[in-house]
Amino acid sequence: MRKNLRVAAYAICVRDGKLLLARAHDPDGRPEWTLPGGGMEHGEDPYDTVLREVEEETGYHIEVTGLLGVDSVRRTFPRRLRTPTDHHGVRLVYEGRVVGGELRPEVGGSTDLAAWQDLDAVPGLPRVGVVDIGLALWRRRPATGRVARPSE
User: Fold this and answer.
1) Which of 12, 23, 33, 102 is the most exposed place for a label (fewest CB within 10 A)?
2) Is 71 within 8 Å of 81 (Cβ atoms)?
3) How many Cα atoms are found within 13 Å in the side-chain-facing hemisphere of 80?
4) Mean pLDDT of residues grouped by 10 in the chain (152 residues)?
5) Quick check: 121 and 115 in contact, CB under 8 A?
6) Region of 51 on the Ramachandran plot (φ > 0 left; ψ -120 to 50 alpha; else beta)
């Protein structure tokens, strides 16, 4: 089995009761919302990753105001005609505050829209798991920097 480790950094930006999200698409092409953020480049610090990714996906410049926690997820992905992949994702979740830039969609990247969504509406949105993990970290601010995954 092929092994893959991906380290990523995401931002929770809340303003006036709204959460900043970016829209991506699942493998079947269905839209789903995610936190702005993404994978670290080799040699990049996670702090710099979250600043870069938020700007790429939303147009905003943020100030990181804290590290909320870390989420670790492991899944096996079957591959047609190739070896299955044992994927381990480590996701650092930061809190951020918008300090500049203008909201715009990403061009030529993994997302196609950025928007502020009402916090109360988020549970009804099609979304990836990191959104719920990030919001739980933001709301609870656990000393351990970890919240239970929905399946735990």
Assistant:
1) 102
2) no
3) 0
4) 94 98 94 98 98 98 98 87 89 98 95 98 97 98 91 53
5) no
6) alpha
